[in-house]
């Protein structure tokens, strides 16, 4: 790999203090790509990239290997923005984000995929690749060995006839899948389609979730604690925000319980956004729920809501992190009108109270169980 490429990526691309944007896994994938399918790299539109974290795979495929018209699927808006910013640094375009997985993978011949921790996401993506890609497609997946498991090979084997694991290089390992089983993938789409929908009896609602969405189509126990006290949360609110909406359960619940409220549901994840839309539709409240993709609510208008409901994240894929939660608290203070409230549920051991006081305002405890605390923080 030309040294200037890696050097350009070594600088930080976001606020995470210790993050180095190019890592051994991205390098390993890029080094291996021409060996597994050099032809595809030379064919315009022959390559797709999945869950590129900072744009390294996409821009590397273009800059180092000459790929063009690269199709990119990124679940996180943070990754999309990093790719855009880094593309500007390189002065390179030549990639786009197709709207659907079908458009992303139709006739594609090489897919570079950065593994996440979710086997459901891997299932949804690999199923679509096997179903729509060219028969000679090679799926080259890479991850950190310590986060990989044999269950990922099993997922790949559902839709590919041949799956091999590379030897480790540094802390990384690759999986290479060939021989797509397109009929099997099409059948799986019919019998067990994404998003998965589940009727949750005690809520009297159907939840829908694409692969990789927090909790899938089930009700998280922390979310349940928040929903148990929901009726006490700013009963006069005209607009409520579901911040970090996941499958959209909070947005759909408040929309059902309060027939005239308007709800904005937002998440950084494209799969979550699609899932929340599907949940809203499944429960007959899509006309009052707007779903927006944003990073911690940063696309939402200032002073636009009287109530925000939030079960914040405390993981960024495999890493424990409170950064996104704290960004949500800061943005909540802007999105809320004066006197508006952020109702938040959190694992009691996280001790978010001081962050809430600092970012939003006076915070009172609504309920505390051994595991969860629900608080209300009011904008002064
Ligand atoms: C604990 S889950 C809660 C999901 C859902 N509200 C529920 O109760 O089941 C946190 C959600 O925050 C989302 N998230 C993580 N980082 C985010 C960010 N920077 N901006 C917006 N949403 C984010 C995750 O994708 C996830 O859906």
Any guess at the CATH architecture of the largest domain?
3-Layer(aba) Sandwich
- List unreliable stretches of 5+ residues: 15-20
Shape type: globular
- The quaternary organization reads as single chain
Strand order of the largest sheet: 3-2-1-4-5-7-6
Structural class: alpha/beta
Task: Estimate the strand proportion.
Answer: 25-35%
**Hetero compounds:** S-adenosylmethionine
Tell how many strands the DSSP assignment holds: 18
Q: What's the level 1 CATH class of the largest domain?
A: Alpha Beta
Helical amount among residues, as a percent range? 25-40%
Notes on the structure:
The protein is an alpha/beta fold and 380 residues long. The chain folds into 2 domains: 3-190, Rossmann fold (3-Layer(aba) Sandwich); 196-378, Vaccinia Virus protein VP39 (Rossmann fold). It has 13 helices and 18 strands. It is globular and about 60 Å long. S-adenosylmethionine binds at residues 214-215, 220, 223, 244-247, 249-250, 267-269, 272, 295-296, 311, 313, 324.
